[in-house]
Specification:
By secondary structure, this protein is an alpha+beta fold. Helices cover 38% and strands 25% of the residues.
């Protein structure tokens, strides 16, 4: 930054100096107190300018990291879903701007069964994305090796502990579904319970199984529950980005807000339509309020 010292103190010369990049203008004869104040102010401005550049560089670095994390998150989500004559599956996610840790997955199992998982990793950014990818890989391996959902969660929990995850954890709900019998068996590690929407629009919130998040305490057993789906039942698995969505008055949507939408007389045609309706319920409720978390749901409809 330049400070001009000149005997010419008229406005034209001052304007010319400023237009050519001068930060300040001091006229002769010099008042050294005034000059000292001017120089101090100039040095302070230079320091503020340097701090602003550093902040900008940090912001650019952070944004690059968030872009990488977002791509990692999107890369692990299924792009197609299994279906059969008697069932359909659909998953969708609307990521938050600061990149949360939600993911879902669908696994084909023996005896024509399918496994469904939805999870929410602690933290944000690249560390959460890396932990998310690790959790998903461990889940797929455990789902193939173990049949019961409770056993799958126990195995993933122990493996995450062995990996020394630096205090990170993941809430997860894992379920198996048999198209032949309609039996839906699930276990939860600190995750919200499944919601079943019936053909007439009424709903059933399945009981919690009491497990805590994975990656916190080793050697845990996870209890499981089973529920037999009726024709045209739809199971909704979701993350807290749905239930903890807030509007401009800071009110929570909650699971009851979702249940009210799918009231008596409401008809959902398939898994995809129900999944998109859940997303629309959240959007309509939040309005112009900022989105602080991923909004994610995975739906299973039995025909």
């Amino acid at each position: 930054r330049a400070v001009i010292i000149s005997a010419y103190g008229d406005m034209q010369n001052i304007r010319t100096a400023m237009n050519r990049g001068a930060f300040d203008f001091v006229t002769k004869p010099l008042d050294f107190d005034d000059l000292r104040i001017t120089v101090d102010r100039t040095l302070q401005h230079v320091e503020e300018w340097r701090d602003a550049l550093k902040s900008r560089d940090r912001l650019v670095t952070l944004q690059n990291e968030l872009d990488v994390a977002s791509k990692m998150q999107q890369s692990i989500l299924p792009t197609s879903f299994p279906s059969g004559p008697t069932y359909k599956v659909f998953g969708t996610m609307e990521p938050a701007r600061n990149v949360g840790g939600d993911f879902y997955d669908v696994v084909r199992l023996q005896d024509d069964q399918i496994g469904l998982a939805i999870a929410d990793v602690s933290g944000k950014g690249v560390p959460a994305a890396l932990f998310m990818m690790s959790s998903r890989t461990l889940l797929k391996g455990a789902a193939i090796s173990f049949h019961e959902p409770g056993e799958v969660l126990s195995e993933v929990n122990n493996l995450l502990q062995e990996d020394d995850t630096a205090g990170m954890f993941v809430t997860m709900l894992y379920a198996t579904y048999s198209p032949a019998t309609g039996v839906f068996t699930y276990a939860s590690g600190g995750h919200d319970p499944p919601l079943v929407i019936h053909a007439d629009g009424s709903s059933t919130l399945l009981p919690l199984t009491g497990g805590i998040a994975l990656g916190v305490v080793p050697g845990l057993e996870y209890r499981q529950e089973s529920y037999t789906l009726a024709p045209d039942d739809t199971v909704i698995l979701y993350t807290d980005g749905v239930t903890e969505a807030t509007n401009i008055d800071d009110e929570l949507l909650g699971i009851e807000g979702v249940r009210e939408y799918f009231g008596p007389g409401h008809l959902s045609t398939d898994a995809e339509a129900t999944g998109m309706e859940v997303m629309n319920v959240v959007r309509d409720f939040t309005g112009d309020a900022p989105q602080h978390d991923d909004i994610t749901c995975l739906t299973l409809r039995q025909g």
